[in-house]
From TrEMBL:
Organism for this UniProt entry: Panicum miliaceum (Proso millet)
Keyword Mitochondrion tagged: no
Domain of life according to the entry: Eukaryota
Gene Ontology biological process: methylation
Protein name: Thiol methyltransferase 2
Length: 80
């Protein structure tokens, strides 16, 4: 996925943040789960907000996030 985007390109994710599931799908997920996958590919969260148009059963459990691919992903770990 990261190879398809130019540096500073963006992707949008619709995250269904299910909790308390004994099995899935959907599986229990958090924003951190998404970060653990996308950060090593050079993506950082540019914006995250509630999905205001989620269907009633999912209201409050969906987030829309905009992720930006950093021009130099090696700088992401230098601050840690």
């Amino acid at each position: 996925m990261a190879d398809l985007l130019k540096p500073n390109g963006e992707i949008i994710t619709l995250m269904y943040l299910a909790e308390g599931q004994e099995a899935g799908p959907p599986f229990n997920t958090t924003v951190l789960d998404y970060e653990e996958v996308l950060k090593p590919l050079g993506f950082v969260i540019a914006c995250i907000q509630d999905n205001d148009v989620a269907v009633k059963p999912r209201q409050g459990m969906e987030k829309i996030a905009r992720w930006k691919r950093m021009a130099n992903p090696n700088t992401l770990n230098s601050a840690e």
